[in-house]
């Protein structure tokens, strides 16, 4: 058996502390959400129950929790679809160099280094100047795209940079049109990356706070609703909400990972069938 050095245990302990730092607050909230009916916001716990989870599904006097959840979910889907479509189209367009492509690329990713609150303020001011109503589905949607699109673009550019064009050439040699080549050759090959872009788009939108703060209008998204609850809620019901939203996020990630696994198995099976046919 290989003997571990002292440096190994030091690095392992450091990594353990790092993981605890990342997930400790989430675990603490999860534990405190199971407080009894007389429990408070801090330790020690006063009993164990599901009381505060049941409170979430009753009429709340502190805000519109489920309305905010529906808005965040709908906004996440809108951002996800738009991010995937625009990223794929941009990735295809940037495969060929054109005048101004470098400037356009850097302009597209500049929003990643600009403070998010300034993006939110800028989008809100533009809508005001144009006489448009500030609403989570319009101005909020636009401000969140400035956050998700650069990630989608970077992923797609990396994917197409490694893409083997011989597959497309083979399809064209067989008489396929450009659209048929994209639909039946390119998209199936890059499908796992598309799922990754979709996951980025949805999760980044679902929990985005700063870029939505000044662009959501009179209707809060879930992160804004949770922030508002921190100022007027003094019961563990806010912890119960945090636990459920965290589980929902992990569930979404799990669905995407399962989709990637299913697609990988399907591609492997198709490859084996093609090999047998040959």
TrEMBL record:
Record bears the keyword Disulfide bond: no
ABC transmembrane type-1 domain mapped to chain residues: 69-256
GO biological-process terms attached to the record: transmembrane transport
Entry keywords, A to Z: Cell membrane, Membrane, Transmembrane, Transmembrane helix, Transport
Protein's cellular compartments: Cell membrane
Membrane topology value: Multi-pass membrane protein
Domain of life: Bacteria
InterPro entries per record: Bact_Polyamine_Transport (IPR051789), MetI-like (IPR000515), MetI-like_sf (IPR035906)
The keyword Cell membrane is annotated on this UniProt entry: yes
Family: Belongs to the binding-protein-dependent transport system permease family. CysTW subfamily.
Stated name of the protein: ABC transporter permease
Organism annotation: Donghicola eburneus
